[in-house]
Structures are given as C-alpha cells and as structure tokens.
Amino acid sequence: MKKLINDVDTVIADALKGIELSDACVRVDHQNRVIYRAEKTREGKVAIISGGGSGHEPLHGGFVGVGMLDAACAGQMFTSPTPDQMLAATTEADAGAGVLHIVKNYTGDVMNFEMAGEMAADSDVRVETVVVADDVAVQDSLYTAGRRGVGLTVLLEKIAGAAAEEGRDLDGVLEIAQRVNENGRSMGMALTSCTVPAAGKPTFDLPEDEMEIGVGIHGEPGRHREPLASAKEIARQLVEPILEDLDFTGGDTIVMVNGMGGTPLIELYLMYGEVHALLEAAGVSVARNLVGNYITSLDMAGCSVTILKADDELLELWDAPVKTAGLRWGV
Amino acid sequence: MKKLINDVDTVIADALKGIELSDACVRVDHQNRVIYRAEKTREGKVAIISGGGSGHEPLHGGFVGVGMLDAACAGQMFTSPTPDQMLAATTEADAGAGVLHIVKNYTGDVMNFEMAGEMAADSDVRVETVVVADDVAVQDSLYTAGRRGVGLTVLLEKIAGAAAEEGRDLDGVLEIAQRVNENGRSMGMALTSCTVPAAGKPTFDLPEDEMEIGVGIHGEPGRHREPLASAKEIARQLVEPILEDLDFTGGDTIVMVNGMGGTPLIELYLMYGEVHALLEAAGVSVARNLVGNYITSLDMAGCSVTILKADDELLELWDAPVKTAGLRWGV
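^ inputs. structure came back:
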C-alpha cells in the first residue's frame, strides 16, 4: 500500500489538521471531528449540516463555507460519524432557525443522523432531514436499503446551501433540497479498487482487463463486471440507465462528471465530452456542469455521472456565490 | 493499462473536445490545438500565452480565462507543442500590446517557443519570454539543461495574468513574471510511475516499498530512491531542499501542495498539514496556499511542494479575480 500518510490510525486526524491549516474559511473541532465555518452561523439563518465516512474528500468538509454547509462531521474511513458528532454539530451550528441534515442513504448514516435529530429535538433545536438516494445502479446494496446516496449530494449541498444563505426558512430550504433529490440521478464505475489504509490492501479484486459498472463509493458491488471498454461505451453505460430512470428532456440540467480519486483530469475532460455528446443526442440540454474530483473513493480509478433537472430557481441557487475549498465562485 | 480513453491516438483530441464543451470561458482551435479565451483579448492588453506537453492538466488549458492565460498550446503527451502552434496562438492572441510566453524549462519547449517568438517578430508582434526553472531537485535532467520548470508555473501564470489584466505593459508584466521566477522553488516526489497511453506501460519501475524523491513531472529520475517513509518524513525531504536553496524567512509566502494526478485529496490535505508545520518551525510565514491537483503527471501518485516569496504586490496580484476551469475566485 503506497499512501502519503503517517500511520493508518491517524490519517483522519492528520488530514483534519491540514484542512484547518489550509482553509481560512473553516475551523475544526478536533475532539468531535466536526468542521465548521470559521465564522459562526448568522442569527436566523438555517444551518446546513452534513457528514459521512471519510475518504470521499472534498465531500463533506471541503464544502463548508459561505453559500454551502455550516458544518460537516467526519466519520472514520468509509464509516458513518456517530450521533454524538452530529448532535454537537447540530446544536453548535443552530442559529435559531433550525437545521437541515443532508444525509447520504447508507444505513449507518441514516440511523445515526436520525438519532442525533431526536436528541437535538430534546434541546429544542428543530431538525429536518433529506436523505439523498440518487444512485440508479442498484436497489439495495452492501450498506444500504434502497438507493445509495452519491454524487447528487454535492449538487444538493450547493443548492440548499444557497437557499439557506439567502434567508429562506427551514421549510423553504427543505422543499428545495427535496426538489433536488427528486430530480437528480447518478451512476458510477470503477477501473480499480480503492485501498482503505487500515485494511492495507484493495477492497476488491478487479482483473487488469475488467471494469465494474455501477460501483458504489465504498467499492460496493455494482450491476456487473465486464471487459474494459472505450470511454464512449463507458459513458453510454452510465448515461443510459440515468435517462431510463427519469425524463431529463424539456428543460435544463446540471451535469457532473466526477472522478473517484485516482483518475487524472485529462480522462475526466475526455469523459465529459462523451457524456455531453450522448445527452445532446438524447435531447437533454446541459445548462451547467462540473468536471473534477468532488465525491471520491480514496484512490479508486473511475468516474461517475450525475444529472439534475434544474428549473430556473435551482439554476439561480446554483449560480449564487459560494466560497469553500471544494467549490468556489462569485466571491 | 486502465484508462478512460477511446484510443491511444485520440486522447488529446478527445480531451480538448471535453474541455471546450465543459468550459464556457474558452474556445478551442482544434486544428492547431490551442485553447483560447472565449472572448478575444481586449485591445491594448498584454496577451499571456503558455503551453507544453499534455498530461499535466489542468495546466495549461485549464488556466485559460479572465485573470490568467489568453491562450494555451497543447502538445502531444509529455511533448512540447510545435512552433507553428505557438505562432498561431501568439498572433491570434496579440491585441497590440505584445505577448508574454511562459515556458517551462524543458529543452524542446524552450527551443520551440524561441522559434515561435522569432517568427512572431517577423510579423511585428513583440514577444517576451520567461523560462520557469524552479525545481531544486536536480541541476540537469532527462529533457532539460538547468533546472526543470514545474509547480511555480501555476503561480506565475496566475500572477502575471493578473498583472496583464490590470493593464500593465509588456515590460511591467515581464518584470512581475521574472520576480516570481526568481523567488519560487519546488520539489516533487513519486509513489508510483505514470503510464503514457501510447506506451501502455509505466514509464519507470518503482518497487512496492520504494519512492522516488525529486522526480520530474514526466517521471524523469530525481535525486534518489529510498524506502517508503511517513508523510512527515516525505514533507521534510521536499521542504528542506527548498529552504536550503533560498531564504524564505522575513516575509510572506504562497505555498502549493500539488497532487501528481493519482493521489487523493485526503492525502494532499494531510501533506499540507506536515508542510505547514515544517514551515512554521522554520520561521516561514504562509500567507496563501493551494492544495489540490494543479500540475499533474497523468496518473502518477505523489505530490510536489512549491514555495514563493511574495511581497505585497505579488499577494495583491494573487488575490485579484480569476475565472478559469482550474483556478477561480472573485468572479
């Protein structure tokens, strides 16, 4: 295993130190492993909180900042944060207007955020939750009942973050988050496995001439394995199941081609070209896009495609200023 | 070889299509393989042009846009663009105020940009050149006489781009570029080789328990190989040679921890923490930083550190708005 780390037991603590030192917009509660905005949430603003297992950076800590998250809880590698972490983040970030929990649909995350929400209610903090479930690859999976929450989480955190920033109340922010969740779909693939530091070896074996279509962001099995194919064919196998699941014609979309962590940008640009061409041929209009590493799986090579139907309101919220380590524009 | 490509012969052409489709701020001359700003350089503004072998994305094409480059020439993989490409970019981007060529110090790049500059002079376009030579690892190398040009190129393109954007003349922009070049140093390391698509196999062999210290961005040999060490020790081996080469105390610096393409962000954050701690201990003040993939070597795992002494003027130019695929803030 070749990694830039000190010790398999200190990877997350060490990375949190680096995040705090590099990003002037955040502060880190190292005890609870929560990343907060450097400045306290302004009075009366809905607080947006997310979190999940580490290993998906920049998600979620890299999306803390003006226009996006107020706090992010960092779990162990590929493991849900604890309810205690989430409760600390929730009560600390609440500024009197309530808190939205953005939860990727994995059994542990859902259970722990639910518990944290109940505990927060005991402290009179109102919490609403959106469970992101955008992965069309499989219905149930290794750690999930129902669809997994993957790339759409990035778009949802941006758009819900903008809605909270412009002063909408908790019901309003929740409605926007639900709208994003209902209108977005994703599908991913892997060329290689990832290696969890503590395990020291690849999570799964994938022969040199094969790829996994529909892989999860922790290396969970996807739909099937097959011989390595061209970028054009891979794009087809990611885009078609998405378009079969939801009609994306007759309006605008936001499209993300996301790298899994070990895939260089030149390949992601190339994949974007193929994805865009397929969407154009299918009559899907792309209004905005993201190409890069936004929700990763440690060092896995591969990519995912996320498509979101975006009405004018969602596009406006997308375009609103954001200042985070992972996404920044307008400021 | 596992890559998201269609054919080893069309990687660059296909990636250029993806760049054009994803980045509304650029247009691509596919014939000459030059990426331009979507809008013509405004009359009287110095044009900033760079380019080099492909495989280092987002460098250089991802840095074309307001506040940074006017045009970037994409060579074959790890191979200098031709003088014809550079001449096309130079004459097309010139807006009457002359052109600055930003050239990484590799023999082919230097020779071809020099030839293009001479040809441009025949067309009455004034060209000045800065040859970036920041890599302290080795004096001469596989493709270079003198020091190689690596990570500092990113910082130089940003700062010179800002100087041109605010209307300085060619002498003024050149002076800024030279000041950056004189005050910045870099050093890199590799955990793994990269694989050039046309070669189909790793450029060099690096045993599972070894790393290469001082590697070049094309996999050129560095200073030495040694057993894999901790992130803290690797950071020391990158930072110390830089600090021995130039005194960075007594002022501010801009620091970049750059990924080589196959290293996930969590490891880069962790490395930044180690680098920052070493600089603090050495009395070096970090005013700004970048952590991410900015000048890559295809799928190589590893990282590099760049440090630039930055006076108030350089910091102001650094902070000026930039709108490119690879770097964006303030707009």
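The mean pLDDT of chain A is 97. The two ends of chain A are 40 Å apart (CA to CA).
thumbs up if we can close this ticket
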